[in-house]
Amino acid sequence: MQLAHEFIKLPFSFDVDRLKAEVLSFGETQWCPHPDGFQGNSSLPLVTVDGGINNDFIGDMQATGALNSSPYLQQVLASFGQVIGRSRLMRLAPGTEVPPHTDTNFHWFKRVRIHIPIITDENVIFQCGAKSLNMKTGDAWIFDSWKYHEVHNNGKTLRVHLVIDTCGDADFWEMVADKGIPVGHYSESDKTTGFVPYVKDKTATILTESTNGSSILNPGELDNISQHLLSSIRAIDSNNRNDIAKIEKVVSRLCRDWRSSWYLHGESAAGWNTYQALRSQAYSALNAIDPAVEIDNGTSAKMALMYCLVLPLINENLAPEGMRASAKIATAHNEAPAKAPTSARNALCSCGSGKKFKHCHGQLS
């Protein structure tokens, strides 16, 4: 999610010793490697689709067995009073990194990540845009995932963060505006008023996402994302005006035809052939965009339009029986590093596959 500042400290703090004790109680077999194979990156699922061990984004989010066995982690998640999406403990081994990337995709367009460091040291550096930060244990931060960001563990400690996904309700964002402290304005002398203690035998009520996707994207949501992306493309002076005009025409036609089809069919199976045709047309037209056209975070406009707009138009996993295979027009990595600057197209992909970026996470079809 795009924020007003690279990092914002939230007015909460937590019992680090209790958190650390619960984290260290987990066995090594409970930790999962990063889905894209990033070296030194691992996670332990806490809130997932159906409470299983998975990396899915869409479905009924429930607590995993690990979370159910951890009373204080439950209390921490519940303390925000927010609807929680996919959430995890995330580890980063000494001497490794989270490579530079942006979360330029549909899932992160309206969700933010809360980071609570549990085990870390002063040599773990989180970089977002032009700002860098060493997050202290027990604090809570959100950051602008629309910008390029990366993490470097230059220390000797196996870093562990609790990472909570949420869209945030009105109260949450009013709290961020009124009490959040942007990086550069925060000092250790600032007092945090919202300490959340561990309370023995306290029952924690965690609100988790149950409705976070649909088989066919609602036209209102399509319009909202389209306008944001078009504005971010227009904001780059170096973008060719003729290219921008072509993109605007394709997106405008898609939005109007999609809304008309939605009014006729809604999410019924009768409209699927129409929706698939519209998405395929948009895919073909936008796939012809000059790779040099960018959005305001330095990401390829083509990549942004595909991952934020075109691919989410249809959720293949919710397709009517017999239509799933035909609904797939491209391969999408939900957390894939977005396109690096154009000069890096021929560099090795940061996911560790050994392939060039343009043939790996820079590939659209």
Present the secondary structure layout:
Elements: E1 7-9, E2 13-14, H1 16-24, E3 32-33, E4 41-49, E5 61-63, H2 65-68, H3 71-79, E6 83-84, E7 87-92, E8 97-101, H4 106-109, E9 112-119, E10 124-128, E11 131-133, E12 141-143, E13 149-153, E14 159-166, H5 170-179, E15 181-182, E16 195-196, E17 207-208, H6 219-234, H7 241-265, H8 272-287, H9 301-310, H10 324-327
Parallel strand pairs: 2-16, 6-17
Antiparallel strand pairs: 1-12, 1-15, 3-4, 4-5, 4-7, 7-14, 8-13, 9-12, 9-14, 10-11, 10-13
Provide keyphrases for this structure.
single chain; alpha+beta; 2 domains; 9-stranded antiparallel sheet; 4-stranded antiparallel sheet; 10 helices; 29% helix; 19% strand; disordered C terminus
Description:
The chain has 10 helices and 17 strands. It is of the alpha+beta class. It has 2 domains: about 200 residues, B-lactam Antibiotic, Isopenicillin N Synthase, Chain (Jelly Rolls, Sandwich), CATH 2.60.120.330; about 140 residues, no CATH class. Strands 1, 3, 4, 5, 7, 9, 12, 14 and 15 form a 9-stranded antiparallel sheet that branches. A 4-stranded antiparallel sheet has the order 8-13-10-11, with no helix packed on it. The protein has a two-stranded parallel ribbon with strand order 2-16. The two termini are about 25 Å apart. The C terminus is likely disordered.
